[in-house]
Amino acid sequence: MQHIADETLMERIKNAQDREAFTMLMNRHKTHAYRLALQLTGDHDEAMDCAQEAFVKVFTRARRYQDGRQFWPWFVGILRNTVRMLRRTTRRRRKAGAEELIVGLPDHRDDPEAAARAAELWRRLLALPPKLREVMVLRHQEGFNYEQIAAVLGVSANTVASRLHAARQRLAQDHEM
Amino acid sequence: MKCSEAKENLSRYLDGELPAAQVAELERHLADCAACRADLERWRAWGKELANMNFSGDHDRKLDVFETSVYARLERGIAWILLSLGGVLVLASALFYAIRDVLLNPEIVWPLRAGLTLLSLALVILAVGVVRHRLSTYKSDKYKGVLR
Predict the structure, then answer these.
(1) A140 has a chain B CB within 8 A of its CB
(2) What is the pTM of this model?
(3) Which of A75, A98, A132, B4 is deepest in the core (most CB within 10 A)?
(4) Which of A44, A118, A143 sits opposite B49 (nearest CB)?
(5) What are the backbone angles phi and psi of residue A28, rounded to the nearest 5°?
(6) What confidence tens digit (pLDDT) does each residue in B55-68 have?
(7) CB spacing of A57 vs B57 below 8 angstroms
(8) Mind listing the pLDDT tens digit for each residue in A93-118?
């Protein structure tokens, strides 16, 4: 079957409210979206909520999509704002602690030390203020450069640089404590 | 270069965002400074771990019904819009008829009618003010391209 680019699917959704294109786009990115939301929220249920709500916005606000724009960075912006709105409007307590979320890297299964290191890093990441955590996630999970992160967050590249620096220093401080 | 200056640039260097002119200077410092090298390596290792982090949980089952859940949310959204529109229409009509019946009723004393007229005028002015303010802030909002 011929691969249809995300951007083409988005244009079909925008111009014709094409549900088939929307379903295809959703199935292609749902796991990635959920995983990213999980790193931003630290909670399975909230992450699922946000990922689903972000796709609802993709469909209902498709007219705001600019033709030719890369889909994924645009979607990440929507997802991040959905996470931020949820954080503002709900005060749900996390049901799962960091220990329940982490399983470590696949090659850590036979390496308890590496798994413990990953778990510790995850705990420290969750303890960061959301503004610092999100730049770390976008930089390392998504591999975005400063300009892409700046576009997602609606801030300058210099602000992104400052936040990343602050995040790494905070992680290092926590590490040394 | 002092360690304090190097640390300022370490993050940008790690992310490949440090201007070329400063890279050589920082690399010279790194060659001589074990502490800054250690920081850099630690940050690099964290980046790799974050990029490859994996999670357990019951999400596989929820991801199976992801599509159904999103379409259900879309339907609920449409229902809420219809409910809201209906509610606004019903309230606006009720308000209109209530005001009209009171204002045009000669049996009701004039101070009450005058007071209600002023209240109605104030509500209209407030509503227009809010709409105008929202429109002007939207026009000058530099983040309006960021979907919320």
Answers:
(1) yes
(2) 0.74
(3) A75
(4) A118
(5) -70, -35
(6) 766 567 778 889 99
(7) no
(8) 454 455 555 544 444 556 777 777 88
